[in-house]
């Protein structure tokens, strides 16, 4: 007997930055394809960017059960939003979005005149932990979404034990000393700890704040993580010991692509906040197969002019071809200091191409791309893994420090350049990645790319986990 009386209707609440909105939109689309109604509650700024530079509106118009709603994050539209202002965004959602969300949900859930079907579940970004109080107030189950890797999630969850053992906060300057995150004891060093676990990671919310966030997240009804079992199986089982309903459904962009491939629609799923400079695609078309190293540090990381120069000299001296994304707001300093030095742009000749923002998923899949110099943001890491492209990691903050350790030490998909940026090291690493050690990295990258395909295909782990998540969401509305 079918007991389902209300059709499932999920409210999705992302943290307002590029990587998180991007992956939650992919999850939203996967749920829409399964016939679940979705309200995507986006902050004004990302929503405005998406409408200006991506094709989301056209793409989602094919799902009658989908709609966007917007809410304020308390910051003016013109507020800069690089890693330097990350805490402003955290603060904004806490002081402005949280109370507005409470009001909005009380009015939606208690209104008798609302024509929309009632909500049956909230899926909130793990950085929007205030959603727990709101969910409790209106009597809805809460599921948290991790836009970060399972290894970083698990390291954050282990902070209370590390604090108790006196390992965090770090004292002294031996950053290579091992730390005892369960399951990572033999290889995780202090310098690999995510977020405020590292003394110098000042741009991330304070330690006690982090502890609270992750304790709260573990108490949710379920967890959805953008990863897959073949990549992070051992860590996922540690997490599942604490949160049995943990669904690893990623890589979401590959999963969505696989589901859409079985349809006639061929819509490209760009969720970009910035105008993509597509001129790099014809440039890539002219380069030999696997000859180009793609260089990009995501949407938030900032670098100094000195670092930029060291990277540039290292790249040029390596003799490799490169495609480099230098965002207009990527350089530390005020507007006038933010100009990329002209000699760098002119000195690339035709071996280098520089753009302000690239269609990254398309770039990663291009046959000319053979390596990725990345900041190890989780979306970028997954995009590289899916494309079978090995990496040089130069992490900036948050989860990136631990992701790069896993890329190099555990998955053997590249090298970790953490805490170093000099032209000699850059040159050597690029040569190793693109020439000397190419065969070994390519072997590991090909194997992992094959695992991805299996996991998102019928019967694969992410495919089945998504099925279980959908079933769970349906049960919540019964
Ligand atoms: N991205 C892009 N074009 C660029 C640089 C980045 O489309 O020129 C996208 C990239 O594909 C990824 C996201 O921006 O999906 C960045 O997310 P990630 O988690 O890697 O890093 P973050 O920006 O959060 O540091």
Total number of β-strand segments? 13
Sheet bearing the most strands, described?
Answer: 7 strands, parallel
Question: What helical percentage do the residues reach?
Answer: 40-55%
Structural class call reads alpha/beta
* Backbone shape: globular
What small molecules accompany the polymer chains? uridine-5'-diphosphate
Number of helices: 19
Using the CA coordinates, give the radius of gyration: 22 Å
User: What value does the average pLDDT take?
Assistant: 93
Strands side by side in the biggest sheet: 3-2-1-4-5-6-7
Range of strand content? 5-15%
* Head-to-tail CA distance between termini: 12 Å
Q: Could you list the spans in which at least 5 consecutive residues all have pLDDT below 50?
A: none
Catalytic activity: 7-deoxyloganetate + UDP-alpha-D-glucose = 7-deoxyloganate + UDP + H(+)
Protein name: Glycosyltransferase
GO molecular function: 7-deoxyloganetic acid glucosyltransferase activity; quercetin 3-O-glucosyltransferase activity; quercetin 7-O-glucosyltransferase activity
EC number: 2.4.1.-
């Amino acid at each position: 007997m079918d007991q389902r009386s209300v059709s499932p209707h999920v409210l999705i609440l992302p943290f307002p930055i590029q990587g998180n909105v991007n992956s939650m939109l992919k999850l939203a689309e996967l749920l829409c394809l399964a016939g679940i109604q979705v309200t995507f509650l986006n902050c004004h700024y990302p929503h405005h960017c998406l409408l200006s530079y991506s094709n989301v509106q056209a793409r989602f118009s094919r799902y009658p059960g989908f709609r966007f709603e917007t809410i304020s994050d308390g910051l003016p539209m013109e507020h800069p939003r690089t890693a330097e202002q990350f805490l402003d965004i955290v603060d904004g959602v806490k002081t402005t979005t949280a109370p507005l969300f409470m009001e909005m949900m009380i009015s939606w859930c208690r209104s008798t005149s609302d024509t929309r079907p009632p909500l049956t579940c909230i899926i909130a970004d793990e950085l929007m932990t205030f959603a727990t109080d709101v969910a409790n107030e209106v009597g809805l189950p809460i599921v948290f979404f991790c836009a970060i890797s399972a290894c970083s999630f698990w390291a954050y969850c282990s902070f209370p034990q590390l604090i108790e053992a006196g390992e965090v906060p770090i004292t002294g300057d031996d950053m290579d000393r091992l730390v005892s995150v369960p399951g990572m004891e033999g290889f995780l060093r202090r310098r690999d700890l995510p977020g405020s676990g590292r003394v110098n990671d000042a741009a991330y919310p304070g330690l006690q704040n982090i502890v609270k966030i992750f304790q709260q997240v573990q108490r949710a009804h379920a967890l959805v993580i953008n990863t897959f079992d073949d990549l992070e199986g051992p860590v996922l089982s540690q997490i599942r010991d604490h949160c049995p309903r943990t669904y690893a459904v990623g890589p979401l962009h590959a999963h969505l692509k696989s589901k859409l491939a079985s349809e006639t629609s061929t819509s490209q799923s760009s969720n970009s906040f910035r105008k993509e400079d597509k001129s790099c695609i014809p440039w890539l078309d002219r380069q030999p197969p696997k000859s180009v190293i793609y260089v990009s540090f995501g949407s938030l990381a900032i670098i100094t002019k000195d670092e930029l120069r060291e990277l540039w000299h290292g790249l040029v001296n390596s003799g490799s071809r490169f495609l480099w994304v230098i965002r207009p707001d990527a350089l530390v300093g005020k507007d006038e200091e933010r100009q990329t030095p002209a000699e760098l742009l002119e000195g690339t000749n035709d071996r280098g191409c520089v753009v302000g923002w690239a269609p990254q998923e398309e770039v990663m899949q291009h046959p000319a791309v053979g390596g990725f110099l990345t900041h190890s943001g989780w979306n970028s890491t997954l995009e590289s893994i899916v494309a079978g492209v090995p990496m040089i990691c130069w992490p900036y903050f948050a989860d990136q420090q631990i992701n790069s350790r896993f890329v190099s030490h555990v998955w053997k998909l590249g090298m970790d350049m953490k805490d170093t940026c000099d032209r000699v090291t850059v040159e050597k690493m690029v040569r190793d990645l693109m020439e000397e050690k190419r065969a070994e990295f390519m072997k590991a990258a090909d194997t992992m790319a094959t695992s991805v395909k299996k996991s998102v295909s019928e019967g694969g782990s992410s495919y089945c986990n998504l099925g279980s998540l959908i079933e769970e969401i349906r049960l919540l509305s019964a």
